[in-house]
Each structure stands twice: as C-alpha cells, then as structure tokens.
Design goal:
single chain, 140 residues, alpha+beta, Multidrug-efflux Transporter Regulator, Chain: A, Domain 2, two-stranded antiparallel ribbon, 5 helices, elongated
C-alpha cells in the first residue's frame, strides 16, 4: 500500500511515517518510481512504534528495542531479557521527569495560592519590567 493508504490505516500522518523511516523504524519497499510501498506487517510495526512512543521511549531507543519485541495478542512483549537494562534506564528517566514535573506543579500551586483573588481596578499595576520591555502577568 502507498503512504496515503498507510496513513489512513494507522492514523499516523504521512510526515510521521517518513520520519519513522528516517529513524530506521520502518523500511518500506521502494518502487522504481520512488514511491514507498508498505506491507501489511508495517501496519503492526507502526502500531508498535506508537505504543512505545506512548510509553515515553525515544525513537532512538525504539530502534534499538524493536528487533527484540514481539506483538502477541495485541500487546508488545520483549523477546529477550537483554532488553531489561534499557527498559529500566528508560523507566528511571521517566521517574526523574515525573519528579521534575511534580516539583514544577508545587511551585505553580504556590504561585496560584499566593496570587490575590481580588480584581485590580488598574490593570497597569500588573505590568512587570523584564529586560526593558513590558510583559503582562496575565500573558504568562
């Protein structure tokens, strides 16, 4: 199937399909005209890529892991234990990111809690000077 049909079948844009190919995640056949020709198995590959991206993995990590993954009963399963160090490293990276987001949320909650709730009659009082230009706190 051509790239347009592949896009419709997978719900992934043509641009992303090209990107996956650039990253070595997809290897469609090429017709003499240069058109990409996708096989039925590529549909499953794209779905697997989307699952792994949804798990927070980078395309570089996915490229390394894909040869060791099997699609069983609608879910991805590692085929070898050699993937465990990579998967654990990715989990640690995600845990750090979650911690950073939780800390950012705490700061934001503090800012929200300390912001006066009364309406200011003079909106100019809410302007701050930042490097010589005015910015409105409301625009943040």
């Amino acid at each position: 199937m051509r790239i347009g049909a592949m896009s419709k079948r997978t719900g992934v844009s043509e641009r992303l399909l090209r990107y996956y190919e650039e990253q070595g995640l997809l290897r469609p056949q090429r017709q003499p005209s240069g058109y990409r020709e996708y096989a039925e198995g590529d549909v499953h590959t794209v779905r697997s890529i989307r699952i792994l991206l949804g798990a927070g993995l980078s395309t570089q990590t996915i490229a390394a892991l894909m040869p060791c993954m099997v699609d069983e009963e609608g879910g991805l399963t590692p085929a070898c234990s050699g993937m465990l160090p990579d998967l654990r490293r990715e989990r640690e990276r995600i845990d750090r990111a979650v911690g950073d987001l939780a800390a950012a949320r705490t700061v934001l909650e503090g800012l929200i809690a300390s912001t006066p709730s009364e309406v200011i009659e003079e909106p100019e009082a809410c302007l701050a000077e930042d490097r010589g230009r005015s910015i409105s706190v409301a625009s943040l």
